[in-house]
Design the sequence.
């Protein structure tokens, strides 16, 4: 699976790591549901740590789209909500 | 709104949003080759934009650096003033100088944090710019190959692949630029406030600014000290040369003509004489 961390670049992770990331992703989802900024930051940190430590960075000249995208580490609840509802956070 | 995304993974959802953006752009194009050229133009524009972004962040960072230098000078000056005041036995002035120094120091801590943030943004944008440059080069090569090798129909799938990959990168870089711009704007507002403080003299950055009352007081004390010393020296000289005459002419007449400060030193021996 190819994972992009916003502002950082793309990583390739194997299946075991991918399923681990999906579990952590539910924490992220719950944090957004519960309006819990601390839980959101913790979930993002965990996701980013696993991806950075277990993934292999994609070559700079790769043009592959990612399977999943993780928001940047210091993202706020508001920013994540905009990212998942297409409220124009992505410019252009 | 909540219900629609609740059952879906956040990470997956974000990637779908990026993809749908790319697809919308692709759908607008009639001829695949037009897509390639149009996209390449957009990529070049984005490269310009990210480079400008790097330059803007660097400018803001330098401005903060300048302010930090000014504040450091101010702090050093206040410490010297505190020392001078203490040496002159003016604890009240020393206390005032030190309390100003501590408020100046707290500004410095804030600025340091902002400086580090901007440095981080600058680094991220620089990396983003390099990454995008490499991908744009790859895209250009692939674009030429596709145009030369494939018919319009065959080209479509290959174009879609390359296009969605670069489009995701462009979205990411575009967001990074926006974030950096927001941070820079916040910092500039704060930097403007500090410039005003510096200019108003509250954080006086002049070596002898008009508002620097502590320095004025120290200067005044310094001046009167040197006058006193000069007086002492003169009195010493005069005292030696006048001494023989005073004995002959009588102390009372000469004492009446002397200024108060100069006569103080002579007061005791005269009192003894008259008793």
Sequence:
């Amino acid at each position: 699976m190819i994972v992009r961390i916003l502002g950082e670049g793309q990583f390739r992770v194997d299946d075991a790591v991918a399923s681990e990331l999906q579990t952590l992703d539910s924490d992220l989802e719950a944090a957004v549901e519960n309006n819990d900024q601390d839980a959101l930051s913790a979930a993002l940190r965990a996701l980013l740590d696993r991806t950075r430590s277990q993934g292999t960075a994609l070559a700079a000249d790769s043009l592959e789209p990612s399977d999943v995208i993780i928001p940047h580490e210091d993202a706020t609840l508001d920013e994540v909500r905009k990212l998942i509802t297409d409220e124009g956070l992505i410019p252009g | 709104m909540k219900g629609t995304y609740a059952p879906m993974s956040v990470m997956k959802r974000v990637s779908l949003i990026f993809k749908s953006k790319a697809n919308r752009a692709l759908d607008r194009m009639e001829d695949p080759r037009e897509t390639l050229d149009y996209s390449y133009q957009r990529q070049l524009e984005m490269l310009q934009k990210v480079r400008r972004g790097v330059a803007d962040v660097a400018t803001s960072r330098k401005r903060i650096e300048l302010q930090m230098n000014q504040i450091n000078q101010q702090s050093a000056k206040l410490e010297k003033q505190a020392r001078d005041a203490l040496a002159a036995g003016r604890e009240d002035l020393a206390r005032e100088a030190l309390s100003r120094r501590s408020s100046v120091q707290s500004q410095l801590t804030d600025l340091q944090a902002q400086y580090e943030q901007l440095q981080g943004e600058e680094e991220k944008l620089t990396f983003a710019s390099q990454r995008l440059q490499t991908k744009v080069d790859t895209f250009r090569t692939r674009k030429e190959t596709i145009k030369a090798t494939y018919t319009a129909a065959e080209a479509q799938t290959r174009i879609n692949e390359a296009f969605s990959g670069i489009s995701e990168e462009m979205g990411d870089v575009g967001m990074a630029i926006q974030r950096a711009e927001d941070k820079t704007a916040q910092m500039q507002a704060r930097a403007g406030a500090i410039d005003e403080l510096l200019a108003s003299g509250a954080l006086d950055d002049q070596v002898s600014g008009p508002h620097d009352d502590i320095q004025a007081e120290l200067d005044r004390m310094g001046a009167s000290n040197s006058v006193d010393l000069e007086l002492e020296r003169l009195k010493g000289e005069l005292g030696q040369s006048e001494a023989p005459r005073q004995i002959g002419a009588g102390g009372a007449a000469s004492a009446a003509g002397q200024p108060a400060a100069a006569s103080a030193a002579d007061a005791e021996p005269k009192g003894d004489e008259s008793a």
